[in-house]
Amino acid sequence: MRLTPRGAGVLAAAVLLYVLGEVAGYVLLRALAGAAAGAVLAGVAVTLRRPRVAVRREISANRIQRGGATTAKLVVSNPGTRRQPGFTARELSGHGEVVDVESLAPGASETYNYKLTGRYRGRITVGPLTLERTDPLGLLRRPVAAGDTATLWVYPPLRSAKAPGAGHPRHHHDGPTTDDSLHGSADLRDVREYVVGDEVRHLHWKATARTGRLMVRDYVDPDHPRFTLLLDTRPPVLSAAEFEEAVELAASLVNAAATAGHRCRLLTPAGADVTTNGGAVGVRPLLDVLCEAVQEPGEAMVPPALRRPGMRGGCLVVVTGRASKDLPRLAGVRAHFSALYVLGVGTHGLGMDGLGVHGIDGVPGARRLSAPDAREAVSRWNQMVS
Amino acid sequence: MNTQIPRSAEAAMLATTALGGLLFGPVFGIPALLPGLVVVLTTFGVAELCRRRPGLVPWRPLLVPAAGLVAIVETVLPGTTLGGLPTAASVSVLADGALHGWQRTLQSTWPAVPEPRLVVFVPLLVLLAALLGLELLHRTRRPLLALVPALLVVVLSQAYAAASGLTAVLAGLGLALLAALTVLACRGRRSPLLVAPALVLGLAGAIAAGAVHPTGRPAYSLREDQPAPVPAASVASPLDDIAARLRTPATPVFRYTAPEPVAAWPVAVFDDFDGANWRADTDFRRVGREIAPGPAVSAPVTRRSARVEVTGLSGPWLPSQTWPASVEGVPALVDEHRGTLVAERSAAGARYTVGWWEPQTDAAALRDAALDPRAGLGGLSEVPPEIDALAEQVLPGLRPSFQSALALERFLAQNYRLAVGTDLPTGHGWPQLRRFLVEDKRGTSEQFAAAYVALARLRGIPARLVTGFRAPERPEPDGTFLVRNANAAAWPEVAVDGVGWVALDPAAGAARSGTGATGVAAAVARVRAELPPDPQLQNPEIAPGSSTTDSSESGVDWTALSIAVAALLAAVALGWLVGVPATVAARAWRRRRRTGRDAVLGAWAEARDRLRAHGIAVTAGTTVRDLAATAAPLTGPAATQGLDTLARTLDAALWSGAAPPEAPATAWAAVRTVRESLAQRPWRERLRAALNPAVLRRPR
Question: Which residue stretches belong to region Disordered (chain B) (predicted)?
Fold first, then answer.
């Protein structure tokens, strides 16, 4: 049981008035102090009984965009045999949403809907609920934690972006593949060591014989477009506000590409590396990573994972900011991708480099785009890729 | 600023401020304060205007004082307006009231004269508190913070004149209630049942804390530090003048006209003696509207008055009476505790009407009267041993009482002689008193009175020395009484329980002023005449059980208050326990008496309200079939069937043009089914339903 600020004020006023009434001999002030103290005591009496109810929270959508909202449903039921007076349910975390629960008859159950809004990007733990019974004058409250927690993912806002054009077919290392491949055409991308789960049909016997270890062919669909996005999370490159814009841009592009069916890969210099097969299902892991992306120090802009063989090819998009001295290093991976876009977000200020992406002149075929915020960047991207 | 502050919160806050203003009632009287409190209404009006026109909200801090000041000028200072418009005079009075009115009020007796210059500071204070409260309420949205200015007005009103007893407790409760209403209004709709503990405990707390007063300090008032400035002219003690006046007996001093005989005209009262001089402690105030008789007077009083015309008094003192009530015609200061009057300017030539209170008593009551120990004995300094010995000899074995006071008077009157002629002894210090009491045994009324007071105090009789003029024996031909120097005298007064100060006159044993005195003087004369000789004087019986400790010091009858509160609570409880079922039954009876379609509608309303009483949620839009579905778990199949019947009957009655003749009976039969199945519920639930006051309201 705790005094609210108002209750503390009333109690302090009661003491003050009583002392004044006693010292100066004013009955009226003493009576007023007595009434105030009586009100606080009544608050104690009213809040003494803690709410005995069962509460369950259901969140209709646990992934929302920043600035959006989702509806949370609070089902309050009274399993006891006595009527439960009303109380206030307050989310302990999140944004402290408040629900006023009316009194409940025994065995009754009531549903309350309230809005959970996502004001900041990130993963938010909603709950546990605090059930609070306050007295009518709001002098005392008795909080009781109840219910479980839920996770709410607040994604960056997704703007409608166009997916880049598909990549072109690559050179075949092992001769032309058959047209009647089981899953459509298959393009031999690599020969690598066998791992459990690989299809035995794809064993490359020649290589196995040469190396003495089981080797398999790694096929990809040559027509399957690929989209790789490198988000620069190093702190010197982007300020905190600019980073939010960069994440918003990255999310918009990844969302567009994955929804368009591109195989997508998302990398950061800090080591995050997610690959999905595209489609609506493939969007979520990528956006989850972007939801939690934070700026963290990393050494080089191009992570080692991008240099190693793996899902490469297709289009590489680098979302960065003031990164001019690192940009020439993109030349090292340029050959693995059919297209390279360097997107700079943020106001660069009046530094030496001025506004915009600089320093990619040495990278062949790289296209660049600079914009002050994500909205502008997406709009220019749409013009560039169409 | 998501929601507006509700109108009711503003109203409660402003009512608190107005109550704070009304607590200045003891100072001016409630009727004098009421016009000024119109500022609360104008403030509410401005707040309402700003609610309707949100564009005016930034101007509210200016609009509130402007409207309030105009309202104050129109209601409190109508005399300064010209054709209803405020003038420069209004501004000057407002400024004077704000700067000096509060102080002049403190220097006056209470209730003060409700003249605008004095009263106007209260409405100005209320206006300021209302303005601050309103802005705090809207800007901070904290109702209790908004009540702080009003609370400060309350504290200030108490610092002026503290309310006491029942009034104080009721006012404190009222303030607490208004504060609670302000908070509740800001918090929105709450269960009224949960407010009940706060009401009950607040009531109990107010009564308990009002009664508990461990230090027992008397109420402090700002006026204690604000005596009225006494005129700077040198104040010669009228006690020193007596002998001089007696030498020129024919010189007129003042003339008075009174409808009833007056015994004497006191001029100055001396209650402290330092061995050489008698001093008058003074506590002068401006004369207000009417001065109540002092707390020492519990006997009924009658109002007397006389018209006085001063001719031969040069000092500031004016002839007065023991309990003056009013002085008109001359600006005067009054010492409420002693009754002395002082002219604010020169006393010479003053013409005034003085009103006073005369305690009603008769000889029988006075004979057995005790003395008032609260009056105090006063100082005597170092008493010469001869006088101490003399005091031991007179009245042997008699306790202080009015009879012993009279016996002492008789002792002086019989054993001492009044000095007449030209060789008059003067002085009233111990040496002169010793000579008078032990050696000469001859003196003027000055020595008689001073010696009486000294001996009385040595015997434990509360007494004080008064100088003034005895009333002349017969009026002048024109009906007025002319008081001359020959009437100058000093006499002692003793404090009698319930009657206050009663004048005795040891010097006038032989030459008693025989103006056919009435009132207290006549009663004293009767008792004096019937006083038994000294050897037969006996101490009065002390009534068994009477104690000197005063149990009801605070003046509040707590038993009566507790009974009143208990009766109030009982009335509320009875109103609930009996009122709710009775109202429900009366409503059902009324519904059943309707005919045709109305009867069916009444049956539906009755069934709905019966189910509502059991806690089933019903809104204005609930249909019979909705209700049947909601109520099914609570009532069982019979009631559901009954409600189905009711639904069909209702449909037929409402939509088939005319209600079938058997419809009312069918509908009410359905209601009976519902009631029967509700009667199967546990008795506790049924009791709760029977007492549920929510069903008296329409569903919303």
Answer: 531-553
